[in-house]
From TrEMBL:
This is Enoyl-[acyl-carrier-protein] reductase [NADPH] FabL. The gene is fabL_2. Its EC number is 1.3.1.104. The keyword Oxidoreductase applies. Keywords: Oxidoreductase. Gene3D superfamilies: NAD(P)-binding Rossmann-like Domain. Belongs to the short-chain dehydrogenases/reductases (SDR) family. It comes from Maioricimonas rarisocia. One of its GO terms (molecular function) is enoyl-[acyl-carrier-protein] reductase (NADPH) activity. InterPro entries: KR_dom, NAD(P)-bd_dom_sf, SDR_fam. It holds the Pfam family adh_short_C2. Residues 7-193 form the Ketoreductase domain.
Length: 254
């Protein structure tokens, strides 16, 4: 059992999907959790109730991680509420599903600002707070298969995820000797509110079952959260600047 007793974790986009599953996993492992959301207060409150039900302290904060001012205000909130931060999970993502040839400058900027720039500015704002904690501090980003393979209507999001993975490696280079671990969890096709809107999602989910090599089991948000939990623990102290793929083996064969 992974023990994160009394650690403080911030999860962006924690109101649903992988973010929500991660927040709950943290609570089950003993961590106090900051639940970030940007649009759905009700869903964030539901996540917070799950955390509190496991006997952990929880705080909810609204912040748009594509905006640097919001990020800085959120870190001030974490400082005032808990006084430190041990674990940072950059999970919030956006982008919309459309062809690259139909992508506008606004579409591109929105995806890059939320999916890539957020990790950079979250880290910049969090480092002074995280350095107050003892032991190694953990920063984890959430990526997807689009970072290395072409998927229909996924060009901008996929490009942003590739950039996210690169930024994480360079952050690991800069922070590794300062008691930080920076890593990525790359999730396979997980059924969430977002992926259900992906054009052709029914066919993609059906095809996923033929590619995974774990029997009849489907990939769930909790499976991705388990990988985040590992990277947030002392068990991963020697894992640095890596992308951990959680997809049931779907990407290793045609």
């Amino acid at each position: 059992m992974i023990d994160l007793k009394d650690k403080v974790a911030l999860v962006t986009g924690a109101s649903r999907g992988i973010g929500r599953a991660t927040a709950i996993r943290f609570a089950e492992a003993g961590a106090h959790v900051v639940v970030n959301y940007v649009t759905s207060r009700t869903a964030a409150e539901q996540t917070a109730e799950e955390v509190a039900a496991r006997g952990r302290d929880v705080a909810i904060v609204k912040a748009d991680v594509s905006e640097q001012d919001d990020i800085e205000s959120m870190m001030e909130f974490v400082d005032q509420t808990f006084g430190r931060l041990d674990i940072l999970v950059s999970n919030a993502a956006t982008g919309g599903f459309r062809p690259l040839l139909a992508t506008t400058a606004r579409n591109f900027e929105a995806a890059m600002n939320t999916n890539v720039r957020a990790l950079l500015f979250l880290t910049q704002a969090a480092v002074p707070l995280m350095e107050r904690s003892e032991g190694r501090k953990k920063i984890i980003g959430i990526s997807s298969h689009g970072s290395h393979m072409a998927l229909p209507m996924y060009g901008v999001i996929g490009g942003s995820k590739a950039a996210l993975e690169s930024i994480a490696r360079h952050l690991a280079l800069e922070l590794g000797d300062r008691d930080f671990n920076v890593n990525i969890v790359q999730a396979g096709l997980v059924e969430t509110d977002s992926t259900r809107r992906l054009p052709g999602s029914d066919q993609m989910f059906a095809a996923r079952r033929t590619k995974q090599m774990v029997g009849e089991r489907d990939l769930e948000p909790t499976d991705v959260a388990d990988a985040v939990l590992f990277l947030s623990s002392s068990l991963s102290d020697l894992v640095q600047g890596q992308t951990l793929i959680v997809d049931g083996g779907a990407a290793v064969h045609v």
